């Protein structure tokens, strides 16, 4: 029933040796049971933020609480609650799936629990491969092994750093399904991604990081509603050289060398939209401007992200 955040990041800054500021005063609370996607361009600080939260890199200032445990002063308690699936595939080639996953559990000082390892392997469809050496697995299975290793010690929180970098579309969908199932089993998921599609598909909330600053944290749906605009494009029968005064109040733009009119409106206000469009069409008719066809589109998360990163550039 606890509403306390499962992770609290408070005024976290990180300067690497040489003075480069990779994180600047980052504040972030992760809610229990959510899927949180951290989006940002290359070098924005995503991996640094994850590494500091997991206790692999020391912060310069600020603090991180994992389930209330300070991740420096109470490192073991904090770290035990976290599973980390790293970006790169650095599995030992000749070890078996079963052994490598069991070994990962041992690293956290947890006693052997074959039933848990079996459950993890089954949930990741690796059970049939448990006796295989890692070298004999496909790339997708190797990624699943990394997830299995991260889950071996029963963490409440799972970090996935670029879980689908470089994998094909089918495997990506597969991975999304795995992540969803994990969330449904009660694990809090934090993933970093370059793929906006991935955040759009998976996340409950999205954080955008840019040059070490968290520039935005928002519910995905709210973000898309808030920043999403809709466009109505009318393809004209006859091109216009300029916008007629009679249409000035609609805030239109001419496009396609005068062959199209573009009307932008807020995706949040369906009633106002309809009224606005009706008035626009009436004014067009009164001005004798005919159109051949019309279509509407809504901005995607990708466009929202690009505009956010640009806006703050
Ligand atoms: N050990 C280090 N020493 C100095 N600078 C570092 C170190 N590690 C990372 N950086 C710098 O910190 C910045 C953030 O790097 P980070 O790996 O956190 O970014 P990222 O958002 O994960 O990028 P990517 O999407 O490319 O993985 C980069 O400019 C990087 O060069």
TrEMBL record:
This protein's UniProt keywords: ATP-binding, Nucleotide-binding, Transport
GO molecular function: ATP binding
Keyword Electron transport listed: no
One Pfam family recorded for the sequence: ABC_tran
Domain ABC transporter: 7-236
Signal peptide residue numbers: none
Domain of life of the organism encoding this protein: Bacteria
InterPro entries associated with the record: AAA+_ATPase (IPR003593), ABC_transporter-like_ATP-bd (IPR003439), ABC_transporter-like_CS (IPR017871), ABC_transporter_ATP-binding (IPR050763), P-loop_NTPase (IPR027417)
PANTHER family, per database record: ABC TRANSPORTER ATP-BINDING PROTEIN
The protein, known as: ABC transporter ATP-binding protein
